[in-house]
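Lecture notes, part 5. Sequence design as translation. It can be helpful to think of inverse folding as translation between two languages: the language of shapes and the language of residues. The source text, in structure tokens, appears below.
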């Protein structure tokens, strides 16, 4: 099984950025734990701060991978183009968020992407990514 994790803007700063919201761990540290926990799954990782690059990655892997776990960061709330890319590919996408976006500012309550995704997971810290990944194991 091949799973692609995609992180959008500012998520390269995990462990540094707003720690009270996003925690102390870098994504690299978390990713190593995740790979250790699921040795039979090929887990690829991509991060970009650039909207078009996120779309290019979805196009690149979206016809061959089994699943995508995507945290599009703030583009979640704004990007019709990423929503269209998710709708265009064959690989199902789970939208994930580290924080509980519904507890936060109102502009974070709406996702442009959710309707094109298989499901949405929010508010479990970095564990949101594991929960997203596990959903592919059970489907
Ligand atoms: C986030 C929530 C978004 O609203 C925010 O812009 C992010 C991170 C999360 O993981 O909680 O960058 O997607």
């Amino acid at each position: 099984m091949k799973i692609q994790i995609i992180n959008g803007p500012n998520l390269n700063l995990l462990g540094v950025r707003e720690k009270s919201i996003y925690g102390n761990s870098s994504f690299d540290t978390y990713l190593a734990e995740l790979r250790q926990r699921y040795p039979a799954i090929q887990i690829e990782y991509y991060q970009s701060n650039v909207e078009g690059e996120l779309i290019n990655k979805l196009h690149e892997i979206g016809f061959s991978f089994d699943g995508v776990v995507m945290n599009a960061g703030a583009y979640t709330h704004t990007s019709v183009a990423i929503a269209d890319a998710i709708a265009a590919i064959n690989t199902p996408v789970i939208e994930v968020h580290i924080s509980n976006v519904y507890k936060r500012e109102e502009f974070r309550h709406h996702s442009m992407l959710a309707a094109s995704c298989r499901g949405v997971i929010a508010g479990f810290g970095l564990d949101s990514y594991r929960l997203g990944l596990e959903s592919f194991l059970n489907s």
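The translated text above is only one of many valid answers, since several sequences can fold into similar shapes. The chain is about 35% helix and 20% strand.
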